[in-house]
Amino acid sequence: MAGIYLHIPFCKKLCNYCDFYHIICNEEHGEFIGALLKETELRKDYLDKNSVSTIYFGGGTPSVLSIKEIDGIFENLNKWFTVDPESEITIELNPDDVTSEYLKGLKKIGFNRISLGIQSWHDDDLKFLNRRHNGLQATNALKEIFKTGFENVTIDLIYGIPGMGIDKWTVNLNTALSFDIKHLSAYHLTIEPGTVFGKLKGKKSFEEIDEEESNSQFNVLIEKTENAGFIQYEISNFGKPGYFSVHNTNYWKQVPYLGIGPSAHSFNGYSRQWNIRDLKKYIKSVNSGKTFFEKEELDLKTRFNEYILTSLRTIWGIDLEYIERTFEKEGCDYVINLAGKFINYGMMKQDKNTLVLTNQGKMISDNIISEFMMPADN
């Protein structure tokens, strides 16, 4: 089966850390939705008639759209694709957009998974991140979501925020786990070029927390989630049994997916393409029949590197049989030889034909993954 991701680029406010394509917009969305519907029709053959097992509305802030607008998009998807009746259908919500009426509308359309962007329950953290909600709104939004009958609920939290400290991070985790959430995504604050924080860092006006503090917060995260019955199935993602994100799991397992909307990425196993990262150009190109995406054919080394990049972040790890079958003995020998030193250091472990990171290895996962990357041909 395959997945569909829809990128809704609109935001009411710019978060200081966000690197996803977005625009500040409180205006009508009709022109954008028209282009989105047209792209859906144009891309109807991309998934090669595979049934769709996941649909994910991300952004940006999808909850700036009205129920009527979302219903129209969803109706159009069902027109051009075969959506499995048991599909996981997710939408990202901002806490201050959550109302009982809105949630009931989502439920009626067919959404069965809610992703709530909380980030922190501390108002000073939220102000620092330039979020547009406060801690009380986060709590009330969660209560309303459960009251409406949504069972599959995930929230986002951010750690590594300057000034947060272990105590405040512990409060965030305890508060999150006091609700009957089935999934938690916890990301370390990263400073990306071009973001507000990135520009401040370039001016020496932003100081990230040190590695020791990062590791301490990560360890508290591991301990708290494990004690609450969550499984860390990916470095930043924790789910109760049976509630792992199907959409993201398919991405990490390299299942084909179609991305619709400005900046959205698509993958079919052998090529990757990405849409224009500009709303006006995207709308104009789609409506005029011009090419609105760039495309890259993936050679064997690139496919190998992408497999390592995605698989080594998960509990499923590197499948040596898959490596040998897909990248032949040379690729398998390369992985086994390189893994040896990390196993000796206690950073990796081998379980039969699978290589996975240990908790110690997860702390420096980016460094380990980069060492496995095959250099491109000159």
Characterize the structure shown:
- With 378 residues, the protein is α/β, with parallel strands linked by helices.
- It folds into two domains: 2-252, Alpha-Beta Barrel (TIM Barrel), CATH 3.20.20; 300-372, Arc Repressor Mutant, subunit A (Orthogonal Bundle), CATH 1.10.10.920.
- It has helices spanning 30-42, 67-80, 100-109, 123-129, 135-147, 165-177, 196-202, 211-227, 246-252, 279-288, 300-311, 320-344, 359-362, 365-372; strands spanning 2-8, 10-11, 23-24, 52-59, 83-93, 113-119, 152-159, 183-188, 231-234, 237-239, 257-260, 265-267, 271-275, 293-297, 318-319, 348-351, 354-357.
- It has a nine-stranded mixed β-sheet with strand order 9-10-8-7-6-5-4-1-11, with helices on both faces. A three-stranded antiparallel β-sheet has the order 12-13-14, with no helix packed on it. A three-stranded antiparallel β-sheet has the order 15-17-16.
- Helix 3 links the parallel strand 5 (83-93) and strand 6 (113-119).
- Helix 6 (165-177) packs parallel to helix 8 (211-227).
- The chain is globular, with a radius of gyration of 21 Å.
- The two termini are 36 Å apart.
Topology record:
Blueprint: E1 2-8, E2 10-11, E3 23-24, H1 30-42, E4 52-59, H2 67-80, E5 83-93, H3 100-109, E6 113-119, H4 123-129, H5 135-147, E7 152-159, H6 165-177, E8 183-188, H7 196-202, H8 211-227, E9 231-234, E10 237-239, H9 246-252, E11 257-260, E12 265-267, E13 271-275, H10 279-288, E14 293-297, H11 300-311, E15 318-319, H12 320-344, E16 348-351, E17 354-357, H13 359-362, H14 365-372
Parallel strand pairs: 1-4, 1-11, 2-3, 4-5, 5-6, 6-7, 7-8
Antiparallel strand pairs: 8-10, 9-10, 12-13, 13-14, 15-17, 16-17
Helix pairs in contact: 1-2, 1-10, 2-3, 6-8
